[in-house]
Amino acid sequence: MREFSTPAELITYRKEMTKSVGFVPTMGALHEGHISLIKQSVAENDKTIVSIFVNPTQFLEGEDLDSYPNKIAADLKICALAGVDAVFLPNIQAMYEKDELTITAPKIKGFILEGYNRPGHFDGVLQVVLKLLNITSPTRAYFGKKDAQQLFMIQNMVKHLFLDVQIIPCEIVRESDGLALSSRNVYLSEKERLRALKLSKALKLATKMVMTQQFKCSDITLAMQEVLEDTKIEYVEIVDREFNHIEEVEIKNTIILVATFVGTTRLIDNIWI
Ligand code: PAF
């Protein structure tokens, strides 16, 4: 497995490759969710590149940029075992100039839900993902559905800027008790981890309601809020797959999303119906 720390080196490596390239961007602290993205990329492409970069521009003031879990040695082992061909590990100076042009997420869909609660977050995500896509020029890039709105923002960027890459959405990976995998789960105490199960419980209840023909979104979100009552809810929202607010669940065109604080840890989860 090759390791690169500057964009120039990776661009040269990529130029020598004529075959299909899969790209998995990450911020490290790799877990089974990342591993499933990597495995899918390895299966679908001749070569796979993984980036590990904790991108400062997508963190808000007061968020966990400085304490974001760092497990670089383990991450490299995971990548090697999963069959990754190259890992990109740049530092901040390699990725950013002092005075840069910026990208702004779409004014409406980029400023609801995550965009509303974490203003500026998507601008930073789009900025770094565009850089990483330009550096790696992948055939396919893999993103988890857990960050559903991020995935939607990236699909939009690819469409709006006519980028030549296929974005592959990947399924959410959960612990056996339902907790969606996240690098931030390590922040949870034992008690908080139990409370964190309320997110997947609320989504399960929502699915059950839909399965019993209860399609009214306000009824579903109310029932979910009851399940989540001892957490600090940021939003429980039901949208179509273009992130438009809807009144009734539309089968095969709906995402039910939740964001909540358990203690000081912000967790998100969703289900595609
Ligand atoms: O989902 C993430 O881990 C990050 O937002 C990404 C896509 C790697 C950009 O920094």
CATH architecture type of the largest domain: 3-Layer(aba) Sandwich
Mean pLDDT rating: 97
- Please give the CATH class of the largest domain: Alpha Beta
The largest β sheet comes out as:
6 strands, parallel
What percent strand? 15-25%
> SS-based structural class?
alpha/beta
CATH superfamily of the largest domain: HUPs
Concise structural overview:
The chain is an alpha/beta fold. It is built from 9 helices and 9 strands.
Structure in words:
β5 (140-144), α7 (148-160) and β6 (166-170) form a beta-alpha-beta unit. Helix content is 38%, strand content 20%. The mean pLDDT is 97. It has two domains: 2-170, Rossmann fold (3-Layer(aba) Sandwich); 183-268, 2-Layer Sandwich (Pantoate--beta-alanine Ligase, Chain: A,domain 2), CATH 3.30.1300.10. It is α/β, with parallel strands linked by helices and 273 residues long. Residues 25-27, 55, 58, 125, 128-129, 147, 150 line the site of pantoate. Pantoate binds next to β2 and α6.
Helix-strand layout with pairing:
Layout lengths: L1 E3 L2 H9 L5 E6 L5 H13 L2 E6 L19 H11 L3 E3 L3 H4 L18 H4 L3 H16 L3 E5 L3 H13 L5 E5 L19 H22 L5 H11 L4 E9 L13 E9 L2 E8 L1
Parallel strand pairs: 1-4, 2-3, 2-5, 3-4, 5-6
Antiparallel strand pairs: 7-8, 8-9
Helix pairs in contact: 6-7, 8-9
The structure holds pantoate.
The site of pantoate (PAF) has 10 residues, from strand 2 and helix 6.
Question: What key phrases describe this protein's structure?
Answer:
binds pantoate; 9 strands; Pantoate--beta-alanine Ligase, Chain: A,domain 2; 273 residues; 38% helix; alpha/beta; Rossmann fold; 9 helices; 2 domains; six-stranded parallel beta sheet; single chain; three-stranded antiparallel beta sheet
